[in-house]
Amino acid sequence: MRIAQVAPLAEAVPPMLYGGTERCVSWLTEALIEAGHQVTLFASGDSVTAAELVAGSSQGLRLGGVRDLTAQHSTMLRQVRHREAEFDIIHLHIDLLASKLFHGLEGKCVTTLHGRLDLPLTQPFCGVVTPMPLISVSNNQRLPMPAGVNWLATVYHGLPPQVCPYNEAGGDYLAFLGRISPEKRPDRAIEIALRSGVPLKIAAKVDPIDQAYFEREIVPLLDNPLIEFIGEIDEHEKSGFLGNALALLFPIDWPEPFGLVMIEAMSTGTPVIAWRNGSVPEIIGDGISGVIVDSISEAVDAVREVKQLSRRAVAAYGRSRFTAKRMADNYVQAYQHLLDHREPVAADVTKPMLALEQRESRPIALGTPVVVM
């Protein structure tokens, strides 16, 4: 296939530091190329890829201090629209911004929604039933959306094995990795560490919008020898940070659409202690690759429980479900379904979803949502 991947311009593909969506676009792009597809990547000019790179900006805009990306994204989308005849599939990763511009091309366009869909600012978009075929990154992510949305598939993220290699030894500290914000609940992570008596290392960025929260709520909690705040780390540092941990703490207080750090930790063999929110029950094998909890007390108990889990079993669980190859294969199946039917496919998320094994055993009828795990 001739495939266009259209990435956000906030970060390079892959990101130099933080950036989940751009990282997934990178892994997907390279896996598609390895599978023999011809890929054009629309992204920032400092991206690194084996695909044809079309620069929508000279560099990732977040590190350049740009916050409103609307103008740059609009310019890039016009480039994509101008070249649409060159592609069999146009895969967009910038939410619903492109929906109107690509009206009439829904038979070859698909948008993966990477973010949460329950916020007040996103609800006006959720209330609009767009003909654009949409892909969710978890089943839970879909729940705030209205009936009649053109869901094409659910495709979980996956990573290459070399990104977070297996670490047999592990370590003796708890890890918190990602972003400092109220919904990520670093305060919970700190309380778990203090109550369990196990050191905690926090590797996280602080966005300007969260600076006041960080200084008011988190900084006063860092004055304890068990707590170490590292700050934002890069891809190379992340592998060692996760692989050398006893467990990853994922104490979220929001409906996380996916949670990339969970599969990164599992890839290294490090189990995850995660709150029962959002996609967590879809990603973590409770008692196999981690422990799902509902309270601080349960999380403290889980710190003891994860010591009994096999790191090899943790890694095997993650790598049986969340690889870049599997992600790319599942996307190709979704692309092919779209091309075969050449019309949007509606799905009702209140009904049971079609498992991959079921879908392989019989053909998909027109109108049946493709659901690939």
TrEMBL record:
GO molecular function: phosphatidylinositol alpha-mannosyltransferase activity
InterPro entries: Glyco_trans_1, Glyco_trans_4-like_N, Glycosyltransferase_grp1
Domain Glycosyltransferase subfamily 4-like N-terminal: 18-118
EC number assigned by the record: 2.4.1.345
PANTHER family: SULFOQUINOVOSYL TRANSFERASE SQD2
Name of the molecule in the record: GDP-mannose-dependent alpha-(1-2)-phosphatidylinositol mannosyltransferase
Domain Glycosyl transferase family: 172-309
The UniProt record lists the keyword Chaperone: no
Keywords for the protein's UniProt record, in alphabetical order: Glycosyltransferase, Transferase
